[in-house]
Amino acid sequence: LVADARDLNLKSDVLYVGRESSIEQGLAEKTGIRFSPLRVGGIRSLAPTLAGRNLVLLARATLLSRRILREFKPDVIFATGGYVSAPVIWAAGQLRMPVVIYLPDLEPGWAIQVLWRWSRKVAVSFAQVLKFFPKGRAVVTGYPVRAEFYRATREAGRAHFELDGAQEVITVFGGSQGAHVINETVRTNLKELLAATQIIHISGKLDADILQQARAALEAPLRSRYHLFSYLENDMPLALAAADIVIARAGAATLGEFPAVGVPSILIPGTFAQGHQSKNAEFLASRGAAINFAEARLASDFVPTIKQLLADRVRLEKMASAMRGLAQPNAARNIANLLQQVAVSV
Question: Are the CB atoms for 35 and 10 separated by under 8 Å?
Answer without folding.
Answer: no
